[in-house]
Structure formats: structure tokens, C-alpha cells
Amino acid sequence: VDRAFPRSARGALKIARTLVALATLLCFVASGAHEAYAALAGMETVITVLFLLLYLLRLDARMRCLFWPLA
Q1: How many whole angstroms separate alpha carbon 26 and alpha carbon 60?
Q2: pLDDT tens, N- to C-terminus, the chain (71 residues)
Q3: pTM of the entire structure?
Q4: CA-based, 20 to 30 A from 25: which of 5, 16, 34, 36?
Q5: What are the record keywords, sorted (predicted)?
């Protein structure tokens, strides 16, 4: 586990993006919006959490099959 990542600028940005995506999901669910909007917000939240975990566990260094700056 990379303990310095959450304190870095990139880590703080990914954490903030995760929180915004979660807040968006909660707002769509609470407002009773169409299910497609809630599903898209949920997918955004899950994808952002997965990328956060990927960088937090340093899996980007092990996975050479993707060009990470584009991800």
C-alpha cells in the first residue's frame, strides 16, 4: 500500500473526484430521478473507486498492458 499517494496532489484529486461522484449518486437517488442517471452516476463512482484502489495498491506499475496517462 502506497501511504504517500493519498497525500499527493494526484491522490487528493482522485479522492475528491470519488467523493463528488458519490455525492452525485446520492443526489440522483434521493431526488427520484430516472434510473439511467442513477446508474451512470453509480458506474462513475465504481470506476473512480477502482482507479483509486489501483493507484493506492501500486498495481499500475505491475500492469504494463495499459498506457496509464490516458487512463
Answers
A1: 29
A2: 888 999 999 999 999 999 999 999 999 999 999 999 999 999 999 999 998 998 899 887 787 787 767 76
A3: 0.81
A4: 5
A5: Membrane, Transmembrane, Transmembrane helix
